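During the reporting period the student researcher (J.K.) took over the structure-prediction task from the postdoctoral fellow and processed the backlog of single-chain submissions. One of the processed entries is reproduced below for the supervisory committee.
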Amino acid sequence: MSNDPLKDLGTQSSERVQPVPARKGVTLPSLTFRHIMVGLLTLNLVVTGALVVTGALWLRVMLNPRPVIATVGLTSLARSYAQSLANDPNISPDALEVRTKLFMAEGQKEIDRLTQDGGMVLLARECVLKGEDIDLTPQFAASLNQQLAATNSPQLGGSINAPDR
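J.K. obtained the following structure tokens:
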């Protein structure tokens, strides 16, 4: 063994590493001006394409309008509807269940109608702690009352405009 650890790497004392014979007749192609220009053109096209995509995405972000944030007092509406059902002495448990499910279904339809164009974000008023928002509770209640009136269900009553915050 010699003092050089790199020479002894992977060899035992009885065997020696044989050098790789050089290949004869193999030459690399020479790099010409044409090769350099094709490489630069390709690089230019890739960078230009990336800039076009970035610009298009930037325009999309900048030109899209911000959505409107609106709130609805769902707790006050549900409380009002539950109160109107509680005031009916002739309601059976089955009818109570059906009318509650109808109220929930009609409320979901109204939420879907308000948010169908994608330009509005609708939040429960109870979820908004601070900030400017549009309160759609009166319009939501009026529309819900129209839909419930068509099914002969009790209307929302009481003060639905009182904030629950």
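The committee noted the following: The first helix runs from residue 5 to 8.
J.K. will present the remaining backlog at the next meeting.
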